[in-house]
Amino acid sequence: MIKVPSEKIGCIMEVKYAAGGSFNTACKKAMTQIEDSGYVSALHQEGMQVIHKFGIACHKKSCKGLYDK
Asked: How far is CA 33 from the centre of its chain?
């Protein structure tokens, strides 16, 4: 988690291993974990108004990411 209180911006990044190169599945799991873990609520309670969410999947030397604001 990254917080920029002066700008009221928060950033959440969740990284998963994409077993067998299943990037889409791993990215979706990362985004689901962000929602289920309450990270967004915690940032809102700290006064963050803009929250960037990144679900990142890595396999060998490649990676893929999903973004949501």
From this structure: 8
Cβ atoms of 54 and 65 within 8 Å: the answer is yes
For residue 69, the 8-state DSSP code is: -
Reported pTM: 0.88
Closest CA to 54 of 4, 8, 13, 11: 13
The secondary structure of 1-68 as a DSSP string is -EEETTTTEEEEEEEEE-GGG-HHHHHHHHHHHHHHTTHHHHHHHTT--EEEEEEEEEETTEEEEEEE
User: For residue 24, what pLDDT is reported?
Assistant: 96
Report d(CA 13, CA 1) in Å as an integer. Answer: 6
Nearest to 69 by CA among 43, 46, 59: 43
Q: Quick one: tokens of 63?
A: 């990676």
